[in-house]
């Protein structure tokens, strides 16, 4: 088992370092109760987990430029960047920020919205805002006009997750998309209407595999195997990739839908520096009224 894990890990790291990752576009249609007619068929591009660092060469400048080109060719109304913009390297925020500033959402210069993840640092907020991005920390914006709130929540690992401070202030009947980097926060958000939560981390099947391996091994081996510590970032392993429904608490009257919907994406970059089975992705959402 140990030899297999070591061999697989090293093969994947070698592949990640020497072969350019093949970016894919994953499309989802998202029905929303009460969506304003003017926003029917609105398109939103989503990316996350860039993990950019001047000390971390896994993601090249050429690959980042291909991400920008791919997103712009989709002609989205908004671009959402859902955490882990940098990889524990706040000094690289200006470099990656200049890349993100190349997005051209049709909603205009305030159409690129960013939230922080556990590998980010509060220090990057000022830099990204100066470069034209809307960095949301427990606040709601209306870049597509009134009738659809875009809610960005602070990261739970940074100690900034305060959903009540913003969600309590929204009318229960108002549609909203919530950006909250950590999937485990979906359980805390069951108290409110969430038409769609966009979250991470999935990182190309690596975390679920490591979690499975860890569950099969005795405790004393956990600290001896590379990367097993990464599994400590999550508790709810039912939310690993794709779209999920999370039951709301209490009686739901605001929109008649008893479940919140959660989207877990595969991310653009990754840490640890390898993937298993799932390529980096940009997600394109198409919003439609729920019939």
TrEMBL record:
According to its UniProt entry, one GO biological process term is: lipid A biosynthetic process
**Gene3D superfamilies membership:** 3.60.21.10
- What residue stretches are annotated with the Calcineurin-like phosphoesterase domain? 43-195
Q: Name one GO cellular component term.
A: membrane
Molecular function per GO: metal ion binding; UDP-2,3-diacylglucosamine hydrolase activity
Record field: transmembrane: none
The keyword Cytoplasm is assigned to this record: no
Q: InterPro entries, per this entry?
A: Calcineurin-like_PHP, Metallo-depent_PP-like, Metallophosphoesterase_sf
> Which keywords does UniProt give here?
Hydrolase, Metal-binding, Signal
Q: Name one Pfam family in it.
A: Metallophos
Q: Which residues form the signal peptide?
A: 1-16
Protein name (record): Ser/Thr phosphatase family superfamily protein
State the species of origin.
Acanthamoeba castellanii (strain ATCC 30010 / Neff)
